[in-house]
Structure formats: structure tokens, C-alpha cells
Design a protein that fits this description.
By secondary structure, the protein is an alpha/beta fold. It folds into 2 domains: 6-122, 2,3-Dihydroxybiphenyl 1,2-Dioxygenase, domain 1, CATH 3.10.180.10; 141-299, 2,3-Dihydroxybiphenyl 1,2-Dioxygenase, domain 1 (Roll), CATH 3.10.180. Helices cover 19% and strands 35% of the residues. The protein has helices at 19-27, 75-87, 152-163, 212-224, 278-281, 292-299, and strands at residues 6-16, 33-37, 41-45, 55-59, 64-72, 97-98, 106-111, 117-122, 141-149, 166-173, 177-184, 192-196, 201-208, 229-235, 242-247, 253-257, 271-274. It has a 9-stranded mixed sheet with strand order 14-15-16-13-9-12-11-10-17. The chain has an 8-stranded mixed sheet with strand order 2-3-4-1-5-8-7-6, covered by helices on one side. Strand 14 and strand 15 form a beta hairpin. The longest helix is centred in the N-terminal third of the chain and has 13 residues, at 75-87. The radius of gyration is 18 Å and the shape is globular.
Length: 312
């Protein structure tokens, strides 16, 4: 297994046909701030985050996940990771070098085992950010990303072997078996989770709110605006975080959350939670019941970007 070279999740990049509608959603009611835009590509920041952007949108003929980006502590760590991936037979899209997106930095891209484009970078300039105030119901930062995989265990093993992710918890069902692995690269319960799905796709992107009041105010704002709610509000058992899931204009699931568990890595032992028990999915009992419709929406469309690097 690799040493712990990844530090945190930086951003998730989406490509969509109806770019203007998607940009209006994320820079409007969802609460992100557009910081740069250039001919069909835009960069959206969270006000409380030092990251230059947490979502990138790109106009494209087909909907796809362009890439998921992670941080490393130094250019030396970026080089070390690239060398280890090459030695492990991982296909690199680019070799380590200067990054041309806002904030610059030093990084490279490669395909994961399911064909997603992953980016790792260091030395990205810190964005001028601020403390999100009480009752201000906008995202503080990007919390985590969940990815659908047709082979849950193969994908978990790949991320453990090549990128140093650690298993935190697992969701299981008496009839379906193991269905989701929560994976971490820090003391945060998960930066990524892998869900068993029929095809490779984005499951959801999650955004951290300031606190429960701001999380509820944000959830209510979207409901009043008629944004389609998928599931919530509630509180998961794995991660102990709150959740309300909505659909963006292109059918990607996005989540408002808060209070995701910070754990002691020295003493942590992974749990297996039976999500046929209602309190596992929602400790509070306030969310609409998990059903086949929610699961189907979370599977998302087949990702058209598998083993195809995004053009930018």
C-alpha cells in the first residue's frame, strides 16, 4: 500500500450539455461563487474553502464526470505517487508538470480502475476565503464524493493499493450483500465512498454547511424554490452526518451535509452497518424512506467519460 500521500479532496469537475442552466443552479440557489469563466468552462468556489474552486463546469455534447481532484502535500509527493502508479501499471494521462487551471500548482492525471480521470496536485495557490457566518446557508467547503462502480470490491482494492485510501465503514444488506464502502485519506470519516452500481457513474457530490441550522435553512431554500429533493432531511449512522439530497438540472445528485465524523485513526475499527435497519440510513427518522426510485436516481446515467480524458 502507498504511504499516505493524498491530503484532501479538492474539486469535482462536471461536463453538461445545458451549461447555462447548470451554471445558474450552482452559482445561484446552490450557493457557490463563480470565480472564473472562459468560453464554456467555469470555476465555482465555496466561500469558506481555501480551494480555488470546488466544482468545475464544462459545456459538452454529452453529460459526464470530467475528473475528481485530490491534493498532495508537496511536488515531491506528486512525483512519488506518479512513479508508484507507473510501476503499478496504472495508465497516466499526463506526467507531473505545471497545472493550467486557476491557482496553478504541480500535478498530473491518470485513470482509475473504472476509467475515471483522477487528478493529484500540490502547490496550488490558496484562495482568499472567509468565515461563513451564522445563518448563512451556503456551502463552506466540498465534503466528499461518492462514486458508482460495477465492481465494488475491485474498486476499493485499487484505491487502497494505489492511492492509500483506508476503509472506514461498510453498508451491507441481508439480500444484496455489501453495497457501499466509505474510504478516507485523513481523520475525516470519508472523502470518498464507493457504491455498488450497474455502471460507472457519479453517485453524488456532498457540500459541508456551517452547522445544522444553516444546513436546514439551505435545504428549505431549495425546497421552496421547487428543486427536486431526492431524500432527507435526515442523519446517517455511518459518518454521523446530516443529509438532504437534491438533483441538479442534469440529474446529478448533490447533497447538503454537516457534522461529518472526525475519527481517531489509531483506534478506529471499520463497522459493517445493515442498512435494511431504518436507523442506519436515518437516525432521526425524519427522511422519506429509502426506496427504489432514490436508488435508481443515485445510479445516474452511464458515464460517457470512461477511459476518455477530458479535453481540458
Amino acid at each position: 500500500m502507498n504511504a499516505h500521500l493524498l491530503t484532501h479532496l479538492r474539486h469535482v469537475d462536471l461536463a453538461v450539455p445545458d451549461y447555462d442552466k447548470q451554471l445558474d443552479f450552482y452559482s445561484g440557489i446552490w450557493g457557490l461563487t463563480k470565480t472564473a469563466e472562459d468560453s464554456g468552462i467555469s470555476f465555482l468556489a465555496a466561500e469558506g474553502s481555501p480551494e480555488q474552486y470546488v466544482v468545475r463546469l464544462r459545456k459538452a455534447d454529452e453529460k459526464r464526470l470530467d475528473l475528481v481532484s485530490y491534493g498532495a502535500a508537496s511536488p515531491a509527493d506528486v512525483d512519488t505517487l506518479a512513479e508508484r502508479l507507473l510501476a503499478g501499471g496504472v495508465e497516466l494521462i499526463t506526467r507531473p508538470g505545471q497545472v493550467a487551471t486557476p491557482g496553478g500548482g504541480y500535478g498530473f492525471r491518470f485513470f482509475d480502475v473504472d476509467g475515471r480521470t483522477i487528478e493529484v496536485s500540490a502547490d496550488v495557490a490558496v484562495r482568499q476565503h472567509r468565515k461563513v457566518e451564522e445563518r448563512e446557508s451556503i456551502p463552506v467547503k466540498l465534503s466528499h464524493v461518492v462514486l458508482n462502480s460495477p465492481d465494488l470490491h475491485k474498486t476499493r482494492a485499487w484505491y487502497e493499493r494505489h492511492l492509500g485510501f483506508r476503509l472506514t465503514d461498510t453498508l451491507s444488506h441481508p439480500k444484496m450483500g455489501e453495497a457501499m464502502h466509505f474510504m478516507r485519506i485523513s481523520s475525516q470519516h470519508h472523502s470518498m465512498a464507493i457504491a455498488q452500481g450497474p455502471h460507472t457513474a457519479l453517485h453524488h457530490i456532498s457540500f459541508e454547511m456551517r452547522g445544522i441550522d444553516e444546513y436546514m435553512r439551505g435545504s428549505g431554500r431549495l425546497l421552496r424554490a421547487g428543486i427536486r429533493k431526492l431524500w432527507g432531511p435526515g442523519r446517517h449512522m455511518a459518518g454521523d452526518n446530516t443529509f438532504t439530497y437534491f438533483l441538479d438540472p442534469h440529474g446529478n445528485t448533490v447533497e447538503y451535509t454537516t457534522e461529518l465524523e472526525i475519527l481517531d485513526e489509531d483506534t478506529w475499527h471499520p463497522h459493517v452497518y445493515d442498512f435494511s435497519q431504518p436507523e442506519v440510513s436515518d437516525q432521526w427518522g425524519t427522511a422519506n424512506p429509502m426506496n427504489e426510485l432514490i436508488v435508481k436516481e443515485s445510479f445516474n446515467d452511464v458515464d460517457r467519460g470512461v477511459f476518455v480524458a477530458p479535453p481540458v
